[in-house]
Amino acid sequence: MASPRSAATGGLGFRGVGKQGGNNAGKHSGSSTNIPVGMGHARRTSSGRFMNLSRDESELGAVTDSEMGSDFLYTVQIPATPDHQLMSATPSNRSVDIAGKAEQQFVSSTIFTGGFKSVTRGHVMEKMMESESNHPQMAGGRVPTCAMEGCDGKAMCDERGENMAPCDCGFRICRDCYIDALNGKGLCPGCKDEYKVPDEPLTHTDVRRDDLRALPPPSGEDSARMDRRLSLTKQKPALLMGNNTTDFDHARWLYQTKGTYGYGNAVWPKEDGYGGDGGGSANPNGPSVGPVPEFNDKSRRPLSRKVSISAGILSPYRLLVVIRMVVLGMFLAWRVRHQNQDAVWLWGMSVVCEIWFAFSWILDQLPKLCPINRMTDLSVLKDKFETPRPENPTGRSDLPGVDVFVSTADPEKEPPLTTGNTILSILAAEYPLEKLAIYLSDDGGALLSFEALAEAASFARIWVPFCRKHAIEPRNPETYFLLKGDPTKGKKSPDFVKDRRRVKREYDEFKVRVNGLPEAIRRRSEAYNSHEEIRAKRSQIEMGADPSEPLNVPKATWMADGTHWPGTWTQSGKEHGRGDHAGIIQVMLAPPTHEPLMGSADEENLIDTTDVDIRLPMLVYVSREKRPGYDHNKKAGAMNALVRTSAVMSNGPFILNLDCDHYIFNSLAIREAMCFFMDKGGDRLAYVQFPQRFEGVDPNDRYANHNTVFFDVNMRALDGLQGPVYVGTGCVFRRIALYGFDPPRAREHGGCWDFICCCCSGTKNKNKIIHAKRVNEISGMIEHTSDEDDDIEASMLPKRYGSSVVFASSIAVAEFQGRPLADKGVLNSRPVGALTHAREPLDASTVAEAINVISCFYEDKTEWGGRVGWIYGSVTEDVVTGFRMHNRGWRSIYCVTKRDAFRGTAPINLTDRLHQVLRWATGSVEIFFSRNNAFFASPRMKFLQRVAYMNVGIYPFTSVFLLVYCFLPALSLFTGQFIVQTLNLSFLIYLLIITVTLCMLAILEVKWSGITLEEWWRNEQFWVIGGTSAHVAAVFQGLLKVMAGVEISFTLTSKSAGEDEDDIYADLYVIKWTSLMIPPITIGLTNIIAIAVGVSRTIYSTIPEWSKLLGGVFFSLWVLMHLYPFFKGLMGKGGKTPTIIYVWAGLLSVIISLLWLYISPNANNQLQGSGGGGFQFP
C-alpha cells in the first residue's frame, strides 16, 4: 500500500538516501548547472542546497515548461549578503506532515522480519510488553482508535500522543484508512470535504530533490548505473570567505573590499595604515580606527589541545630507558661470556630466557617514550555548533549524527537489567536528540532481551526528563540510586526530593518487572501452548482421527500480543533456534521531532516537566538473521550487521560502540569525542578511544581488573604516536573509516624500517598505486566524473559492500556529514548549517531494506570482514580492526576525561579472569600468524606504532620463557647449582642496576600517568599469573589452529552478579576449577618444596654452599611473591581451601620427589653414605 510522503522535504536528513519514484526518475543531463533530476525552477541557498520556486515566484509568469522548452530551464544563484539572507525550504503542506508522521507511527508499531530468500513481513503489534506504555514515540501506547466503522486500528497521533486529524473537522482516522481515503475520492469520512493534498501524488517516494547531497538510486532505464555523487558545487576561493570556508564575514567584507551598503556605513583608513595604535602610520586627516580588527576569533578557537608531560619527568624517564637498555646489553654479553661449567644446561636455559625477556621489555618500552595528555573545550564546541550565527540564525545544532551500538548475545550471562541500564544512560546523554540513534544488537534473538528493551524504553519517559531537569550524574539509574552521600548536594530545584522519591519508586517497579520477565514469558508461553494443544486436539477429534495419536504442536515462545516470537524459542524449533532464526528489526522509539517538545504539569505525569524537553532518541532492536551451516563471525559479524542497518535507517557519520555492561558515566562523553573529530585535522581521525573504567572490583584489585597500567600508561603513550589501539568498547568511530577508505592527506613514514621491509622498489610503487586508487574511489562518490567511471565504480560496489543500492548511496552522505566545519585553515570541510535540517520520517520501505542488509548471506563475495567493517578471523577483532585503520594511515585519539566517560563491570572471579585473559592472548597469537602481523605493515604506520603492534602479537610467547624461568630457581635448589658459577661482584652489580632502574622507571611512570605503585605492582603480579597459565594455553591453542586447523571457541564472560546480594564481592571467593590453574599450582608447590630441600641439604651438607642457596631461595621467593594473589584466591573466603588443591599438592609432591630421585640417584647415595652429616628423605 502506498504511503503518503512528500516528494521534497526540507533539508539534509540523517538517512540522506534518495529514492526516486518512477515518474521522477530520469537521466542526468550532464550539464554544468547540476540541477537535480526532475527540478524545473530552483535557487540555491547559502549552504549549497536548491529550493523549488513556484510559478508565482518565477519571472516567466504563466509560461509553462512545454512552451519554453528544455533550453530555457535555468537556476538562479543569489549570493548571500547582509541585506539578503536566504532561508531553507521547509514543507508547509499540512497533509505532507501528517502523512510522514502517520508512516513513522506505523513503522514504530510494527516488527519487521525477513532474511535470505524470504519475504520481509511486518507484523503490527498492539503491545510489546505486559505493561502498558503511554509515551508517544513508543509503540503500544494509549492511542485512540480509528473512528471508521469496522476499523480497530490506532488513530494517527502527534508528538504528544494527541489526536492528529488530517481534516479540520477533527475526525480520528488511522494511517491505513487515511491512505485508502486519499487513494479513493480524497474525501474526509467525517465531514465529506476534500482533503488538502499536495500538488504531487503521495507515494512511497523518498526523494530529496531540494538537496543535492541526497544520492538518487539508478533509474529504471539504466539499473546498472548509480549516481553516487554528492553533487556539491565546488565554490571558488573567495576573499570574503577566508580559507576554505563559506562563513560570510560581513565586517571582513567591508574592511577588505572597501565596499559599502549605502553611504556612511564604514570609516575607511588610508592605504598606509589604520592609524592610532594600529601599528601603522597615523592618519591625521581622519579619525583613528585602531588596529586591524580580528574577526571570528571566538569561533576559531581550537576544540582540543595537547598537554605535554613535564620535561622534568619525561627527560629522566627517557634517560633511564637508555641506561637500562645499555646495561641489559652489557649484562647479557657478560652472561654469554661467563658460562657455568658445573651446570651448562641451567646456564643455557637462563641465558635464553633472559635474552627473550630483554627483547620483550624493549618492545614494551619503546612505544612509551612519547606520552601526552589532551584536553577539550566543550564551550567552544557549543559556540561553534549550537549558537545562533548568520548561517544558522535559529541556533539549531549543527553537530553530526551519532549511532550508538550496544551488543548482547546471551541474556543469561548478560542480565537484561544491566543492558537496560546501559540503554537508559545512552538515552539520557547530553547530545542533540534528533542526532542520536541507539541500536541494540541481540545476537541471541531472545524474547527476554526484546521485552526488557521495551520495558527500558517505557521507563525512559520518566527517567530521561528527570535527568535533564535536575542534571543527574551518572545517568545509569542503578548506579545513581546506589550512590552514597547527600543526593540533594548541588540541587537547586525545590521539587528535587519529591521527584527523586517518585522516580526511585518507579525504578524499583521497573526492576521487579524486568527480573520477572523470564517467569512471565514462561507462564505466558505455557498458557498459549496449552491452548494450542487443546485446539489441535479438538480439531483432531472433529476430523475423525485417532485421538491416541500424538500431536505435533510446537512449543513456541509467545509475545505479549499473543503471537509467535520470530526469534529464538525457549525450546528450539525449526527456524526458531539460537543459530536458526529470521532477521528482526523493531523500532522501539521512533525518531523524535525536530523541534523541542516541552512537557507539562499534568497530574498524569509523574514529575513536572513544564520546562523540560520530553523527546527521546530513536531506539531500535536488531537481531540479524542466522542459519545453520553459516559462519556468523560472532561479535564482529553482529557489529557489521549494525553498521549496514544504521546506514540505511539513520546514517550517522559517527558510531559509538559499547558493550551491554558499559554505560555512559559522563553524559557529555559524546561531545568530548566530537571536539576531536570537528577540530582542525579531525577529518584524519578514524576513532576516539576512551579508557575502560570498572565498577564492582574488590578494593585491593587482587587480579588487576582495573588494568590501569595498560589504560593509563601504554594507551597514553600510544596517543603520542599514531594513536591508541581499539579495545572493543567505549570507542567512537568515523563511519567512513570502517568502510575501508584511506584518510585524506595520508602520509608515509620513511626510514630504515621501510628499507628493510621494502627491499624492492616495486613494493613502494605498488602502495602508491593502491593509495591513488582508494583516493579516486572516495572522490568519485563526492565529485562528478565521467559516465565511464560511473560504470566501473557501480560494478565494484556489490563486490565491496553488497547489493544494497540504498547502502551504497549512503556512503558519500556519511563522508560529507562527518567533515569539520568550514573555517580558516580547515581542509576537507562542510558549510556551516548543513546539518541543521529535520530528519526524514522512517517508512516501511526503509526498514525493509534494513532487513535485507542483515540477512546472513548478504556478505557473501563482498569485502565485509576483510577490508570493510569489523575484521573477521580473530577472537580479538577489535585490535585487528584498529590495526587495519592505522595501517591505512588513519590516526586515533585517546580521550581521558576528568569524569570517567564510561564505566562497566569486570570479572572479579579468578577463573573468569583467567578465561578473559586467555581469549585476549589467543587473539594475539592469531594476529602473529596472520597477515595482520605488524611486521608486514605498510609505510603509513609509524615505526614505534609498528613496534607496539608487534608487541601485541608477540607478548603471549613470553609465557613459554617465563614458565621455564619460574622453574629454574627450584631446579637450582634441587641440584645445588645456580645460573652463574659463583655470585661474584659483577653479577650482583648488574643485577642491582637493572633492578634499581626498573624501580625508578616505575616511579616515573606513576608520576606522569597518575596511577599508584600498588596498581603497578598488582599488574606485575598478574603478568606472572597470566603468563604461567592463560598465555601458555593461548600459545598452544594458536599453534593448533595454525598447524592443524582446530577452531577456537570461547564462552561469554559472565556479567551477572554473585548469588550473595549482601556481599557485592561474593564472586571473588568462588572457586571454579579450570585446567589453567595447573601450571601456577605446580610452579608454586615446586618452589616451596625446592626451598625446603635446598635449606635442608645446605644445613646437613659437609661443605655448605650458602651463596648458591641464597640465590636459589631469593629467586624462588620472587616467584612466590608474584603468585601470592593466585594462591590467596585458591584459599577462598575465610581461608577455605578446596579439596582438589590438597590432592594436587600431594600428587605433585610425590611426583617431584620421585623425579629427583630418578634424575640424581648417585648424589643421594653419596649423601646417605657420607656419615651422620648426610640428609635423607624420610
UniProtKB/TrEMBL annotation:
Query: Main subcellular localization, coarse class?
Result: Golgi
Q: What does UniProt list as this organism's lineage?
A: Eukaryota, Viridiplantae, Streptophyta, Embryophyta, Bryophyta
Q: Under the GO molecular function aspect, what terms does this record hold?
A: cellulose synthase (UDP-forming) activity
Q: Which InterPro entries match?
A: Cellulose_synth, Nucleotide-diphossugar_trans, Znf_RING/FYVE/PHD
Regions of biased composition (Gly residues) lie at: 10-24
Which ranges are annotated Basic and acidic residues under compositional bias?
199-213
Bilayer-crossing regions: 317-336, 343-363, 954-975, 987-1010, 1022-1040, 1081-1100, 1106-1127, 1139-1159
Residues that bind Mn(2+)? 635, 659
The annotated active site, in chain numbering, is: 443, 878
Protein name, per record: Uncharacterized protein
Pfam families assigned to the protein according to its UniProt record, in alphabetical order:
Cellulose_synt (PF03552), zf-RING_4 (PF14570)
Where does it sit, as one GO cellular component term? Golgi membrane
Q: Which domain of life is it from?
A: Eukaryota
Q: Where in the cell is it found?
A: Golgi apparatus membrane
Membrane topology type? Multi-pass membrane protein
The positions annotated for binding UDP-alpha-D-glucose are 407, 413-414, 443, 634
* The entry's keywords: Cell wall biogenesis/degradation, Glycosyltransferase, Golgi apparatus, Membrane, Transferase, Transmembrane, Transmembrane helix
Keyword Cell wall biogenesis/degradation annotated: yes
Q: Name one GO biological process term.
A: cellulose biosynthetic process
Q: Where is this region: Disordered?
A: 1-53, 199-225, 274-299
**What is the source species?**
Ceratodon purpureus (Fire moss)
